[in-house]
């Protein structure tokens, strides 16, 4: 399944190849302060591939907080965060915002609350290696 999405103004775009074909998409409603304020609802496909394009890379702000192990890609023009990445062991992993999806029925998405409080940095990175998109390309 190919899922396209991006920020509101189109400066940050992505194409997510979801493998294998899903019967639904599970999304995590993170309860950290950043995600609460931005309505973060994230998903990933551990067997998938993500291609991210930026029309003007200079209009993308990288934001890190807390453990500084994840980079939120914020469009400076419209303020949307469609992609989050984490570099682990020389490899880039990612999650995408289901709010940034195009042409995906809301009924196909199954949100669930998520709390990562109490995780050590090592546990957090291991969880991302297991569950985030492992094949991420920026162009």
Can you put this structure into words, describing what you see?
There is one protein chain. By secondary structure, the chain is mainly beta. The chain has one domain (2-138): Metal Binding Protein, Guanine Nucleotide Exchange Factor, Chain A (Beta Complex), CATH 2.170.150. It has two helices and twelve strands. The protein has helices at 33-38, 121-131; strands at 2-6, 12-17, 25-30, 42-43, 49-54, 60-63, 71-75, 83-88, 91-97, 101-102, 109-114, 135-138. The strands form three sheets. It has a five-stranded mixed sheet, with no helix packed on it. A five-stranded antiparallel sheet has the order 4-9-8-7-6, with helices on one face. A two-stranded parallel sheet has the order 3-11. The longest helix has 11 residues, at 121-131.
Features:
single chain, 139 residues, mainly beta, Metal Binding Protein, Guanine Nucleotide Exchange Factor, Chain A, five-stranded mixed beta sheet, five-stranded antiparallel beta sheet, 2 helices, 12 strands, 42% strand
């Amino acid at each position: 399944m190919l899922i396209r999405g991006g920020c509101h103004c189109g400066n940050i775009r992505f194409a997510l190849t979801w493998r294998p074909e899903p019967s639904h998409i599970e999304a995590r409603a993170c309860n950290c302060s950043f995600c609460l304020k931005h309505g973060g609802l994230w998903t990933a496909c551990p067997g998938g591939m993500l291609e991210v394009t930026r029309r003007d890379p200079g209009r993308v702000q990288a934001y890190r907080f807390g453990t500084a192990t994840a980079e939120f890609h914020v469009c400076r023009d419209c303020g949307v965060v469609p992609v989050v990445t984490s570099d682990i062991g020389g490899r880039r992993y990612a999650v995408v915002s289901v709010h940034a999806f195009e042409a995906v029925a809301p009924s196909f998405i199954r949100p669930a609350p998520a709390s990562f409080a109490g995780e050590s940095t090592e546990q957090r990175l291991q969880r991302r290696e297991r569950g985030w998109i492992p094949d991420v390309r920026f162009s």
